[in-house]
Amino acid sequence: MKTVQITGCSSGFGLDIAKYFLARDWKVIATMRTPRGDILPPSDNLLILPLDVTSDESVRNAVDAAGPIDVLVNNAGIGWLNALEGTPIDVAREIFETNTLGTMRMTQAVLPQFRERKSGMVINVTSSVTLKPLPLLSVYTASKAAVNAFTESLALELEPFNIQARIVLPGSAPDTSFGATAFSRIQGNGGFPDAYAGLAREVLATLQQPDAPKTRSSDVAEAVWRAATDPSCPVRLPAGADAVALAA
């Protein structure tokens, strides 16, 4: 039985990824800031652990409690949609601390066991917005683009140890809490600057078009599964109809 450790499993992509691997008889270490036992089906193959990817101590504790793993899925992240002028530097720092440094921190924590066994897989979930920039997503895009570049270089760095690193790039996913959470964070930090209000309406209308291709959480779970199990999988793997179209 193989084991996968997944960050950010309380909702959205992470929750569906955990369910997908559980249904295929993997041992799943599902981590989240505030553990909840009612969101995943009961299973002897499931272990739910607390994890804050911005904390060195929390990361160490979660990796130690998980024991040996075969695959790490760095999915935990926070969203942000606003003009740069409307983004306090403290908010930008929080986004990078979670989306970028949190990914690096988790990866760094599991590499010694992978290197010792000469096997292992790191899968980093980023975003298709790194393929086609959109206005009002500059800070969020920067945090995810940094992970793309990090992963591609890391893959070369780890190749001598038979450790692989891959990127899954989801598109826009209306069936997750990302949009609502990002919008509530924006409102809590003063909303859009007046000068950008018209642009904000245009961008939100584009993102909410009902007939536009979208990404389902299940698309992302399937892509992560392929990244973990298909030796022919490329380093970059788009997930969802809109992400596949952008990649093409």
Task: Write a brief structural summary.
It is built from eight helices and seven strands.
Description of the molecule:
- By secondary structure, this protein is an alpha/beta fold.
- It has a single domain, classed as NAD(P)-binding Rossmann-like Domain (Rossmann fold).
- Helices cover 46% and strands 15% of the residues.
- The protein is built from 8 helices and 7 strands.
- The protein has a 7-stranded parallel beta sheet with strand order 3-2-1-4-5-6-7, with helices on both faces.
- Strand 1, helix 1 and strand 2 form a beta-alpha-beta unit.
- Helix 3 packs parallel to helix 4.
- It is globular, with a radius of gyration of 18 Å.
- The mean pLDDT is 91.
Low-confidence stretches: none
* Number of helices, counting only DSSP H or I runs of 4 residues or more: 8
Give the structural class. alpha/beta
- By CATH, the architecture is named 3-Layer(aba) Sandwich
Q: What's the β-strand tally?
A: 7
Question: What shape does the CA trace take?
Answer: globular
The overall pLDDT, averaged over residues, is 91
The CATH superfamily bears the name NAD(P)-binding Rossmann-like Domain
Q: Which sheet architecture does the biggest sheet show?
A: 7 strands, parallel
Q: How many domains is the backbone divided into?
A: 1
CATH class: Alpha Beta
Across the major sheet, the strand order is 3-2-1-4-5-6-7
Give helix and strand order, one letter per element, not per position. EHEEHEHEHEHHHEH
CATH overall fold name: Rossmann fold
Summarize the amount of helix as a percent range.
Answer: 40-55%
Terminus-to-terminus distance: 36 Å
Strand coverage percent: 5-15%
Cα-atom radius of gyration:
18 Å
